[in-house]
Structure formats: structure tokens, C-alpha cells
Amino acid sequence: MRRGPARAACAAACVFLLSVCGSGAGQDRGRLEGRVVDEATGRPLWGVNVMVKGTWLGAVTDEAGRFEVTAVPAGRRDIEASLMGYEKRTAAGLEVVAGSATEVTLRLKQTLIRRPAEIVTASKRKQAIEDAPVTVDVVGDAEIRSRNAITLDKVLENTAGMGVTDGQIDLRGSTGFNYAAGSRVLLLVDGHPLINGDTGGINWDAIPVEEVERVEVVKGAGSALYGSNALAGMVNVITRDPSAVPETRVRMTAGFHDTPAYDTWRWTDRFLTWRVFDRGELDLGNPLGFAGLDVSHSRTVGPVGLSVTAGRKGGTGFSQNGWFERWNAGAKVKTRISERGTLNLAAGYTDNDHGEVTQWLSQSRPLEVPPSEYGNSIRYKKSNAAATYRHILNPSLAYTLKANWYRTHWKNDYQDNRDAARTDKTGAEAQFDALWGRHAATFGAEAAHNRAESDIYGSPETLDLAVYGEDGLRFGQRANLTAGLRYDFHRVRGVYSDGQLSPRLGLVFRPGGETSLRASFGRGFRAPSIAEVFADITVSGFHVSPNLDLRKAERAWSAEIGGGRTVDLSRLFPALDGPNPVLLLDAAVFRSDYREMIEVGLKPGSQDIQFLNIGSAYTQGFELRGRASLWNGRLSGQAGYTFVDSRDRGTGRPLRYRSKHRLNAGAEWKAGRLTFGLDARLASRIEETLLYNADERVPVRVVDGRVGLDLGRTDLVIECTNMGNYMYTLRERMLEPIRAFSLTLRTAW
Amino acid sequence: MRPVLRLSIILACLVFLSCADHGLSPAASEPGSGIRGRITFSGAWPDSTKDVVLVVSKKYPEGITDRDGLIAFVLQNFLSGGIQLCDTIPRNADLYDYHIRLQPGVYEWVFVIWFPDTPEYLYGVKELGAYYRNPDLQTRPSPVEIIDGVTYDRINISADFANVGMELPFFRPGRKR
Question: Vertex A656, ends A366 and A139: CA angle to 5°?
Fold first, then answer.
């Protein structure tokens, strides 16, 4: 049964290939090659995406800025070069001669606002960011590396409309917090899902931060292309490709936690700042702190690009049971196995042994845990592997075959239980991308199998099968219309099966100038995870009982209308004394109507906790985003404000763990080799919690600051997180991190 | 570069303002409404102790003695926020001074419960003691009326391991794994 879907997909792919692969054969072909350089400095640009317009043919520049596109049909061709932080440049009317090479040099002009020209997540294929009918935020490598984050979620929580609670993504009020189960945002790594097979949640420690090139955050229902979990959006982590020349990179991080804001909250004499400033003596023996080391090496041997990475992070945490020790290793291989075929292989392993904090002892001692939980820990191992093969059949048709495997294995070492679970999630997908006339279409089939072995779930198995298709229709330069549909079949062996149809419609209209308007309407769904259906566990006397009646996927119709505009600030404010002041503005209104929403609650007629279909609910609101650059990029900043009104229609009360107002803002000032940065995260008080709803809660007001020193191949970042040492909770009785100082040194050779 | 300087000053002010407020605090209950007092333990802490927790309830299960009735009472009041589990008391303490913030209203039952060290200690939870204005007249726990802005002192409780009260169908919520 497990092999069936993959076999069917392969057969379908073969039939399709046979029918179309001849279409490009016999044509006279030539090569396009050349260099891409920075217009101002003449410096070669690495990683530039060069595409032959109107085809899937393309290449990425190497460290010398060189590229080569082979098998280009002879005739006049236009090519387009794009790179994050640069204006897109087109070279039109290049004459490609059969059997010979056409040389071209492209000069790209740096933009003041780092924004990618192209994205890959919104429509499951490369497209211009302004063609996406939904809101897309991109977090680039500079933003990631300017912070000392150990896990990627700590960077992403600065994104407009996004909150992260205990690793769980809340995108525009979609999830709030669901006890780490059932993410309504699909996490992808290089297009492969990385959602835990058992809980349906996310483990950020499985992603090595240093290997991330950029992150695309797509807001709005994405189930029409991605199926379950993409109910409220997708977060796609794009990792960097292997380097063309040998390169070794090292990152070292060390830091310490400051003392809590109140003396009475000090639970140990190991706080370093307390030793220094209050006791007047410095004792570096075992202070509360953290450290990490990551080493990676990348090179290309013949046609094979290879990168390997390994790292260790460890720390005491700032509270009792807050310690962690984490090891990770990974490898990525990219190779061209034919003139038109590229194979990517990736694998990773993470071993995270850490203390477990369930709740604080009391508000007067919030950094301590109840005696019955002291010493509780959990060891969590994750292994993943993914393969992607992309083949360009002819200039207008390409296919991609994907396979992935993700194993999660955790074991509790609690005072009251030693539960464990191992889950294997395996998936395969065949995707076709076609261009004809004004159309750009994507269609394919997908299969996934999930099997758990656990003393709390038993041995459940799930199977998912899906077919999908989406067509983008261009109306000149002014408008794009997108229509897509996906059918998903979900089966939980021996319990139930279910089918979901997910349509999506999108429109982008460019009335002129630098203005772009967009609208989208679609349906998303999320099938309940294994944990939500089968979990049978007692922790701290709190019994979670299985719910085999949880047979309905939660579903939501979502709509968004938005628009963006680039503004030349020098026209509005002539007094600005520097060149090139630019402002990007974006606004969106959105609404999602949920049916059969799955939330954690109390089992009817008992005190057991269960995951239940609670009925209907909605989230609605608006989002304003701005990104500005002044004085030739020396001062830049961005801000996003999101208002979310959410309501459970059954009770009439707000949905739990949601903030009504959220403001994420950041600014960066460059002064020579130094960079000064600030990030602020403000959110209104969480309106409802499941437990202890009468507890005191406060709004979120966190400011992080940093200073960076750029020494070329080496850079240094000193960071202070939670500068105000602001004490707050995002879920019941769990204090968020107190002020911490850290230093990161990165070097490459 | 004057505008840069101006912007820097604005940002510095924002940072300064953010440092002025520390959010949650143990002192937050000082000017607000709540109760504080001392719990005095007598008798030996049993080895089978899981946790001992201070609890406040807006209602007292007057006249309810059967188990099903108590389950319904606890469930209904816990869901509505009428029952709140407050401080967990350090093991083997002889005395414990507590201070908790409460919304204004009448709390009919301020009491201490004992959780046995069993996998599901929903069963076997016992009342160790409750607040009685007159400790010599322990027929029914004394209600505490909280007025906005006032913290009530001397809400003292005697907890006796040798003389436990009624068995309660209680659970201690935690995080699902």
C-alpha cells in the first residue's frame, strides 16, 4: 500500500514524459554564457538567477559571477537576471546561434531595500514577488546573520504578523498556541515538508541557522498547492547551495543570562551579572549561559557540489530545568547529472537533550518549577533526508521529482513517566511546470505515509494522496489571474478516511507606476495529527485521552485584498538630505472562516484533556507593512502592524492565545564597518488562555539591540536580547526569556 | 546628518521607555487586590506526596458529598475560572508565606490540597486544610470578600497531614507532550 502512490505517480510521469519529451528535440540549439557584475563596483555577483524569458531554461552564477545556459533554442532571446538586493535586469534580443555560444555581461544595480526579485513558494515555482496574489515576506541571509539566534524561529518572530509561542507559529492569529500540536502553517525546507509526523508540530532545532539563505513567509491559505497544514500559510526555508570554490565557515557564539528583574526571582547564585555587580566578585565557574559552535565546509568537485555542516549548542537556560545540549550534522549535494537535469540531495540529524519546563512554581517564583517536575527532561532526535530531481524537458516544460523522509524519536525522562515515540514520515511528489502562450501552469501528484510506534499512540498509520494543478494567466504587463485546485485523500488506518477539495483564485493588478494590487480567495484544511487522535498520556497528573471521533479535518475559507507601492521619499520630503530615500508600503485586509476547528479542550463529561472539533470560528483583520531606506542605505528600517479580531462562534469569546494588536519593527544604522540594529516586538495582552485564565497577563514589549563589526571575511555581532528585561508570558505560567547578552564570531576562508 | 541624530535620539528614548517597565512582577499584587497569609503544616509530609497546592474557589460545594457531584462541581467551576490553583508549596515546608493576586469578588473556599504520587493523582487528592476565620469553629470554610485594590492579610491556614479532610476529584493541569 505504501508503494502504490509513488508507483502511480511515476507511471503517470513516464506517460507524460513520453508524450512531451520529443517536443524540443530536433531544434537547433546554442549556448548563452557570460558574467553578472555589480554596476557600481564591477564586482562579480554570486548566486544571481539568470533565466531565459518565456522558458524554464536558466542558471545560477558562480563565485566568479559566471553562468552558462545550455540547449537554448536558436533565435532571438531575452534573458533576465535577478538577485536579492539588486534591481532585476533584462538583456533583450540576444542572438542565439545553433552550435555556438553567445556571450553577454549583465550589470546589476543595487537596490537600497533588500527584497528578492523572485520567490518560489507562493505558486510552487519561480515567479516575480509582485506576481504573488498573497502577502509574502522574505527574510534574507543578512537579516538572519545579523542576529545571534540559535534557532530560526527567533529570527522569524520579527516578521510582520507573526508570533512564535514555544516554537509554534501564529500567523495573523491562525494558531495561537495548541500545545505544540497541529501547526496551521506548513514548514518547508527547500520545498520539502518538515512537519513532525506524530504531533503535526514544528521542531526548529532541525534547521541549522547558518545554512539558511532566505526564508519565504507566505500568508493565506495554501492548501490548493500544499495540502494539509498549509491552512494559514507556508514558511519555506531555502538553504544555501554548495560553494563553487572550497570554503570553510565557522560560527562561535557565547552568551549569558542577566539576572531577572526582581531580586526575589533569583533562584540561584549562578547569575553572572549578580556575581559581578551585586557581590563585587567575578566567579566564572558555571554561570547561567549558553555557547555554540558550528563548522561547515563546502566545495565543488567536478559536477558535484557538496556541503557538510556540524555543530553543538548547549546552555543552562535561565530557569530551573532550562538546560539543553544539542548536536546537529547535515550534508547537501547538488549535481548536474545531464545537460538539463539537476539532482539535489540533503540529509540532517539533530540530537537535542533538554530539560522540560511545564509551568512555573508560582508568580512569586516563576523561574522555578514545581518539585514534582524538577529534573524532568526529554531527549529528542530527528533525522531527515530529501531528494529533488529537476529536469527541463524543453524550454517550456520541466518536471520535478521529490522524495523525503523525516524521523522524529523522543523519550521522556520525567519523574512520573518514561514515555517515548518514534515516527517515520515518508513522502513523494511529481510536479510539472509548463509555459504556453500567456499561461504558466503547475500540476502534479503527491503521496505521504506516516507511521508511529509509541507507548502513547500505539502503532497508527496515516496515508495521504493528492493531485493538484494551478494555472497563472497573464494579461499583458498589467494583470495576472491564478486559479488552482487540489484534491487530498487522507486515511487513518482502521479509523477513518476523508477527502478535501481546496480551490484557490488569485488576481494581481498593476494599475501603473509602482503600485500593485492583489486579491486572493481560497480554501485550506488541516487533517488531525496522530497525536491529536491517538495520544494517551499523563503528565503532571494531567491526562490526555485519545479522541478516535476526531474524524474531521479543520477547514477554512480565506480571503485577502491588498496592495503595495514604492514611494520616492525625496519627492514627499525634500528636506531629506541624502540620496535615494525609498519607502515600500503594503497593506492588506484578511479574513478566515474556520469550520470544525481543532483545539485542545476538556473531554465532555470528564476532566480529561482532548483535542476536539470545536465548531466554527473566524479571524479577521488588517496588516500594514513598511520598509524604508534613507541616506543611501545607511539608515534602514521596517515595521509591520497587524490587527487580528478572532472569535469562537460557539462561545462568543476570542480564540485563545491570540493578541489583538501586534507591532514588529526594526531599524539598522551603518557607520563604516559598524552596524547598529534594534528590533522591537510589541503585542497586546493575550486575551484568553485554556488554563488559569484568571492569571495576570501583560502585553509584550520586547526590544533587542545589536552591534555588528564587519571585517570582510570575519564579522562580529554583540547582541542584547530583551534589553528592557521585560517579564511576560505567552502561555500560562511560563516566563519568556529574560535579558541575555551574546557574542558571535563568524569567519570564512 | 542631523535627522540621523534625531532618529537615534527617538530610538534611544524608545529603548529607555521599554526598560522602564518590567511587565509581570511579584510586586504587581501589592497595590492590587488579593490575599496573603501563612500556611502552617503539622504532621510529617508523606513520602507519597506529589505536590501540595494552595487553591481558591468562588464556591464551596455545600451539601455535595457524592463523588459524581464533586466531579461536576470541580469541572464546572474550573472551566468558568471559579477555581484557581495558586502556589505550589515547597516540599517538607513547615511554614509557607503566600501572597496571591485575585480578582475582586467573594471566595467561599481558600484551601490547601495534597496530590498523591501516583501516575494519575486525579484520584486520592485530599484537602489538608482551609481558611477559617475562627479556627475553633471549623464547620464551614470562611468566605473572603475581596474589594478592588485591597490585599487582605492574615488569611492563614492550618494544614494537618494527620487529619486530612474530604477526598476531591482534582487534577493538576500541565503541558501535553
Answer: 85
Residue among A26, A14, A174 at smallest CA distance from A526: A174
B176·A539 Cβ contact <8 A:
yes
Answer yes or no: do B24 and A371 touch at CB < 8 A: no
Length of chain A: 749
Asked if residues A209 and A139 have their Cβ atoms less than 8 Å apart, the reply is: no
Tens digit of pLDDT for each residue in B95-107? 888 888 888 888 9
Contact B11 A678 (CB under 8 A): yes
Positive or negative CA dihedral for A35, A37, A43, A46? negative
Of A281-290, A658-667, B42-51, the poorest mean pLDDT is in A281-290
Give the angle A423-A425-A427 at the CA atoms, nearest 5°: 175
Q: Please list every residue in chain A whose beta carbon sits closer than 8 Å to the beta carbon of residue B22.
A: 261-262, 724-727
Tell whether the torsion through CA atoms of A94, A96, A102 and A108 is positive or negative: positive
For residues A677 and B158, what is the distance between their CA atoms, to the nearest angstrom? 55
- Give the pLDDT confidence of A535-550 residue by residue, as tens digits: 888 765 567 888 888 8
Tell me: pLDDT of A13 over 70. Answer: no
- A-contacting residues in B 137-176 (Cβ below 8 Å): 169, 171-176
Return the amino acid letter for A85: G
CATH number assigned to the domain with residue range A232-748, chosen from the 4 options 2.160.10.10, 3.30.1300.10, 3.40.50.300, 2.40.170.20: 2.40.170.20
If we measure between CA atoms, which residue out of A287, A229, A632, A164 comes closest to residue A450?
Answer: A229
Does the beta-carbon distance from A729 to B86 stay under 8 Å?
Answer: no
Contact B22 A727 (CB under 8 A): yes
Which of B23, B29, B176 lies closest to A701 in CB terms?
B23
Of A219-223, A274-278, A719-723, B163-167, the one with minimum mean pLDDT is A274-278
How far is Cα A424 from Cα A492, in angstroms, rounded to an integer?
15
Give the closest-approach CA distance of B17 to chain A in angstroms: 8
Which among B24, B120, B176 has the least Cβ separation from residue A363? B24
A341: how many CB neighbours lie within 10 A of its CB?
A: 15
| Number of residues in chain B | 177
> CB distance A724–B20 less than 8 Å?
yes
Compute the 3-state secondary structure of chain B and give helix, strand, coil in percent, each to the nearest 5.
20, 35, 45
- Which residues on neighbouring strands pair with residue A365, listed in sequence order? A362
Write down the pLDDT at residue A450: 93
Residue A733 and residue A360 in contact, taking contact as beta carbons nearer than 8 Å:
yes
**Among B3, B81, B174, whose Cβ lies nearest the Cβ of A539?**
B174
- Please list every residue in chain B whose beta carbon sits closer than 8 Å to the beta carbon of residue A692: 84-85, 173
Residue A415 CA to residue B91 CA, distance in Å, equals 15
Q: Note whether B88 contacts A361, CB cutoff 8 Å.
A: yes
In chain A, what residues touch B175 (CB-CB under 8 Å)? 179, 358-359, 539-540, 542
Nearest CA among B47, B65, B85 for reference residue B161: B47
Percent of chain A predicted with pLDDT > 90: 41
Chain A residues inside the 8 Å CB shell of B29: 363, 696
- Residues A509, A123: contact at Cβ < 8 Å? no
Level-2 CATH architecture, domain A3-108: Sandwich (2.60)
Q: How confident is the model at residue B11 (pLDDT cuts 50, 70, 90)?
A: low
Q: How distant is the Cα of B133 from the closest Cα of chain A, in angstroms?
A: 25
Residue A421: exposure state from Cβ atoms within 10 A (0-12, 13-18, ≥19): buried
> Domain ranges in chain A?
3-108, 232-748
Distance of residue B138 Cα from the nearest chain A Cα, in angstroms:
28
Q: Which of A653, A588, A589 is nearest to A615 (CA)?
A: A653
**CB spacing of A262 vs B103 below 8 angstroms:** no
